[in-house]
Amino acid sequence: AQSVAQPEDQVNVAEGNPLTVKCTYSVSGNPYLFWYVQYPNRGLQFLLKYITGDNLVKGSYGFEAEFNKSQTSFHLKKPSALVSDSALYFCALANQAGTALIFGKGTTLSVSS
Amino acid sequence: GAGVSQTPSNKVTEKGKYVELRCDPISGHTALYWYRQSLGQGPEFLIYFQGTGAADDSGLPNDRFFAVRPEGSVSTLKIQRTERGDSAVYLCASSPQGRVVAGGGEQFFGPGTRLTVL
Description:
The complex is a heterodimer of chains A (113) and B (118). With 113 residues, chain A is mainly β. Chain A contains no helices and twelve strands. Chain A starts with a strand and ends with a strand. Chain B is mainly β and 118 residues long. Chain B contains no helices and eleven strands. In chain B, the strands form two sheets. In chain B, strands 2, 4, 5, 6, 9, 10 and 11 form a seven-stranded mixed β-sheet that branches. Chain B starts with a strand and ends with a strand. At the A-B interface, strand 6, strand 10 and strand 11 of A face strand 5 and strand 10 of B.
């Protein structure tokens, strides 16, 4: 069965520090992985995706994610956090049919000034 | 340009009633998805339309849930005999292409309809 796990409900970082939001997955076959962000009172927004190729994927707003096949992980990273990055982040995996996304529970990122 | 819109933004109904939730996707997007998000959880897939047809309805929880997209644009999610457990935020998303591996993974989400069943 396919699944996505986000082991941390909340991540707290100080502005200017690097941030990591963790995601692990389980799938048979090649994974297609995504990160989405949900700001308060706004819809989910696409950040980045991994389909194939380079293990380091760059996305919107300075975010990047590192695909690690041996650890079945796809952690979201940013070198220097901003207060405006505070939001709810979801990792997602394409289902085997390629017709929908399977989302993790989400991780709340809180960046303090 | 206009994003995905959903109406109503909030819907309060009584147990046993029928409700309809509407989604207006981005113009030209052939793929449309419905998800349900319960408190503290990620979105859960319900149904995927490619054009007018439901290409994957495996996420619909039971036969009280039904969705249509008759002209390949606007979609309506219909819930019969609502139950308290149906209370959630219902999200609609669209994408220019359907299958995730063909580019459909970048989905554009609407703000959602918060459904409360009393």
